[in-house]
Design brief:
It contains twelve helices and 15 strands. Helix content is 33%, strand content 23%. The protein is globular, with a radius of gyration of 23 Å. Pfam families: PrmA (PF06325).
């Protein structure tokens, strides 16, 4: 158990404090001032950029509007620096990625400086505040004292709660998957479509493993394709709860067993499926762990352990985007080298171009890499 972080501020001449909540794991800000409906957007933006947090005491909806105003200022294009006689070199794809991540991190820090008070029952004691108890309970769990949290984080919790309620439509399943807060939502469906159309190897109708199941979407799809027994693994408690919930919603509990395991369960299977995080970079928050995999740890772990958990003529299906290759974060030769060193061979590969909006957004700093991206289902077998 980690000690509860505490935030401190001065209000009406009195020293005050409260528990600090942050799903991103950020420490409480050191400088806190009181803000209300009289605080202007320019003043708030200046304070936020200086690292001074503002604890809101005004109307909730006015705070929401203020946050939107801060976002507009943060997103406003910066004035171009005076032209130098020496032309500045265009950043490489890798440099562009790191600059983009740096800008995202700075933006998040700035917008997280607007804080809200919460009662111990997760109610926000401000005028015109919505009832956010259910959304906060799903993310924070039960609390025993009032606390302070970022308004930006609260809006993320509310959005996740709405996704959890209505679910994400999965055409390949003809059903909806309900993601929990902090569990990767299957909004990019191309990798699901690859699993839906790939030919099942011999024996796969009897048993398959789904490694890092997340919402359980691939385990559910394999069950729908007729696999009699699917063992779905994960280490994250939220993912385990989310996958179990979705499997029960889809009435697939008789076929799918959700278990806590670091990558592989015990034994071997004729089919082992894994959709690891696609980009080898350090996540800035726990919620980004489904996207960013430092030093390709999960990818390399899956490849290295596959032969020991695959039946002799079985197949390992690795679902992977090549975005990291276009960004210069990983090479194809590295991937093929890990596969070879693990005693595996490539049996074949299915490919699909992504159709998400960013792939066509020419204003995106990473557009060139996204436009060239391909998502693949690598069919791996034992040498």
């Amino acid at each position: 158990m980690t000690e509860q972080a505490t935030i401190h501020w001065t209000e009406n001449g009195e020293e005050r404090s409260a528990n600090w909540q942050s799903e991103a794991g950020t420490p409480p800000p050191k400088r806190v001032v009181i803000a209300d409906d009289t605080t202007t957007a320019d003043t708030a933006y200046r304070l936020a950029c200086e690292g001074t947090a503002m604890l809101w005491r005004g109307d909730f909806q006015n705070a929401r509007q203020l946050l939107q105003a801060l976002a507009r200022r943060a997103d406003k294009p910066k004035k171009a620096a005076k032209a130098s006689k020496v032309p500045k070199a265009k950043p490489t794809p890798t440099e562009a990625f790191h600059l983009h991540r740096q800008a995202q991190s700075q933006r998040a820090r700035t917008l997280s400086m607007l804080l809200l008070p919460f009662d111990a029952d997760h109610l926000v004691p401000l005028r015109r505040s919505p009832d956010v108890r259910e959304a906060c309970l799903e993310a924070y769990g039960e609390v025993d004292a009032p606390y302070v949290a970022s308004m930006r984080e609260l809006l993320g919790l509310i959005g996740a709660h709405e996704w959890r309620k209505k679910g994400v439509e999965i055409p390949a399943l003809a059903e909806r998957i309900h993601p929990y807060y902090g569990v990767f939502s299957p909004v990019r469906g191309e990798y699901i479509d690859l699993v839906a159309k790939a030919q099942l190897p011999a024996g796969a109708l009897n048993l398959a493993f789904d490694i890092g199941t997340g919402t359980g979407v691939l385990a559910a799809l394999l069950a729908q394709r007729g696999v009699k027994r699917v063992i779905a693994t994960d280490t994250d408690p939220r993912a385990l709860a989310c996958a179990s919930d979705n499997i029960h919603r889809l009435k697939a509990a008789a076929q799918v067993e959700v278990v806590e395991a670091d990558l592989f369960p015990e034994g071997r299977a004729p089919l082992v499926v894994c959709n690891p995080p696609w980009v080898p970079a350090r996540p800035n928050s726990p919620i980004e762990r489904a996207v960013y995999d430092p030093d390709c740890q999960m990818l390399k772990g899956f490849i290295a352990g596959l032969a020991d958990h695959l039946e002799p003529k079985g197949e390992g299906w690795l679902l992977l985007s090549d975005l990291a290759e276009h960004l210069g974060l990983r090479t194809r030769d590295q991937l093929l080298g890990w596969i070879d060193a693990a005693g595996l061979k490539v049996l074949g590969r299915l490919e699909v171009k992504p159709n998400h909006p960013k792939a066509a957004d020419m204003t995106d700093p990473l557009h060139a890499a996204r436009a060239a991206e391909v998502t693949s289902l690598w069919r791996l077998g034992i040498k």
